[in-house]
Amino acid sequence: MQGKAERSYLMQLVDDAERIVMSDPLGEEIPPATYALDGSGKEKDGADGFYRAIASCHSCRLCYAREVFAYPIVRKEPRVLFIVENPEGKTILDGSSLETFRAFWKDSLRLGEGEWALTSLIKCPGGWDPSCADACRQYMRSELSSIAPRAIVLMGMNGARYMLGERGTDDAYLGRRFIVNHIPLYVTYSPAEYRADRSLRTRIWDNLLFIRKELGLDAVR
Question: pTM here?
Answer without folding.
Answer: 0.76
